[in-house]
Design goal:
Family: Belongs to the IS21/IS1162 putative ATP-binding protein family.
CATH class of the largest domain: Alpha Beta
GO biological process, one term: DNA replication
Shape: elongated
Structural class: alpha/beta
Number of strands: 5
GO molecular function, one term: ATP binding
Strand content: 5-15%
Number of domains: 2
Keywords: ATP-binding, Nucleotide-binding
Radius of gyration: 31 Å
Oligomer: single chain
Protein name: AAA family ATPase
Strand order of the largest sheet: 2-3-4-1-5
Length: about 290
């Protein structure tokens, strides 16, 4: 008589467990593939912040315990953060700021006639939004350019386009633009910035062509965009840079009546406020 041979219960259970494991593995593979496709699509839609946060969540075990709404909010918030950071980097790159300055590092202790109350109010940038101007005057080394860069840096942080240029470079660029027939484009390019910083105004006398070009730029920006001037000379002596008194009067009157003025004085801060870095041994300025 033939005996029926049957598998022991333990063997049957093991077979079922293996099948279940295989199904689970295939399911996880499908989920991983779908997640990768989602990340790829987010990049195609130019949403790198959302892609990065989604990838972080799917690789963090505890993230699945959070409500869907909270996870989605985190994904959207990260995209906003990434976009703001990228915009700031772009604005700073285009601003061409020669000094790494910020409002947090302004030195109010060194005597130089800096009106702290006025400068703090300028830090709110309402003057840019209201299309007013700022003039910073004072001797060499009192921190005019540094303060200008700090305000321009803050403008970039607030999403306002800024551009820093020395007046001599500005005049040279206008001369070149005239020669190449692109003066109109140059003027429009300068006028697209919310804040134009013109450094070392009045350091050289301007010829008549340069005077007319500068006046055209200023008139075009007044009441539409803001200008920040730095100069070694008080505003009362700015007329000397112009040969044509009519042009000088027209330019200066409009600037004076629409500007906040910071008049600095004292000795140079460059050597006094340049502590030596422990890492590089180089001096770092704080003005």
């Amino acid at each position: 008589m033939n005996k029926r041979i049957s598998l022991p219960p333990s063997s049957t259970a093991t077979s079922v467990d293996l099948s279940t494991t295989k199904l689970c593995c295939k399911h996880m593979e499908r989920i991983a593939m779908m997640n990768n496709l989602t990340i790829e699509k987010l990049h195609q839609l130019r949403l790198p912040g959302m892609a990065a946060e989604f990838e972080r969540q799917i690789t963090t075990p505890t993230a699945s315990d959070l409500p869907f709404e909270q996870r989605m909010r985190s994904i959207v918030d990260h995209e906003i953060t990434v976009r703001k950071s990228r915009k700031l980097q772009m604005l700073l790159r285009r601003a061409s700021l020669p000094l790494n300055a910020s409002l947090e590092d302004v030195d109010y202790r060194t005597p130089r006639g800096l009106d702290k109350s006025l400068f703090l109010s300028l830090g709110s940038l309402d003057w840019i939004r209201n299309r007013h101007n700022v003039v910073i005057t004072g001797p060499t080394g009192t921190g005019k350019s540094w303060l200008a860069c700090a305000l321009a840096h803050q403008a970039c942080r607030d999403g306002l386009a800024s551009y820093f240029i020395r007046v001599t470079a500005l005049v040279d660029s206008m001369v070149t633009a005239r020669a190449t027939g692109s003066f109109g484009n140059r003027l429009e390019g300068l006028n697209k910035y919310d804040l134009l910083v013109i450094d070392d105004w009045g350091i050289d006398a301007f010829n008549k062509r340069a005077q007319n070009d500068l006046l055209e730029l200023i008139v075009k920006r007044l009441d539409n965009r803001s200008i920040l001037f730095t100069s070694q000379f008080p505003m009362s002596s700015w007329h000397a840079a112009f040969n044509d008194k009519t042009i000088a009067d027209a330019t200066m009157d409009r600037v004076v009546h629409s500007s906040y003025v910071l008049e600095l004085n004292g000795d140079s801060m460059r050597s006094a406020n340049a502590p030596v870095s422990k890492r590089s041994g180089k001096k770092t300025e704080k003005q």
